[in-house]
Amino acid sequence: MPDSDTQNSPAHFVPLSSIMNQHAGRLLDYMQEHKARNVVITLQVKIDIAGKKKKPFFVAVGVTFDFETPEALIDEVQRQCPHDHDCLFAWVPAHLFGSEDFGIAIDEIGVGENLQNGLVGEVIEKAAVEQAVTALVAS
Q: Taking a C-beta distance cutoff of 8 angstroms, is the pair 77, 87 a contact?
């Protein structure tokens, strides 16, 4: 996918609902239509936590080809996170896909690994992130 027009492009912040409604749940379609190499998918959700009231979360999953570290993304996610939400960030460094260094990094926010992984997994699944990364790496 690299070409001189899109290499080192900034990240697009896009709600999961936009990918679901306008791109049939396919991140790949969004990335190709917008010539985006770096996308942060966002989701605002309220979850019932055992014995507590609904807790609001702002989930952001960065899928990037041009970022060596996620710090700039984390800064922007924290800026966009509503003040009353817990902010959960995960990073998919697509440029490392297929190497032993590849892995999805998920911030620890103190709500339990199952909940954190579930929220991130929902975004990854509903946006078909794995299919987008494999298709773009292969191209």
A: yes
Residue with tokens 């049939």: 24
What pLDDT is stored for residue 21 in this prediction?
Answer: 97
Mean pLDDT per 10-residue interval, the chain, length 139 residues? 51 97 97 96 91 89 96 96 97 94 94 94 97 91
* Those residues with Cβ within 8 angstroms of residue 12's Cβ, 6 or more apart along the chain or in another chain: 30, 34, 36, 38, 39, 40
Contact present, 64 and 133 (Cβ < 8 Å): no
| Cβ contacts of 94 within 8 Å, gap of 6 or more | 63, 64, 65, 133, 136, 137
What's the helix, strand, coil split of the chain in %, to 5?
Answer: 35, 25, 35
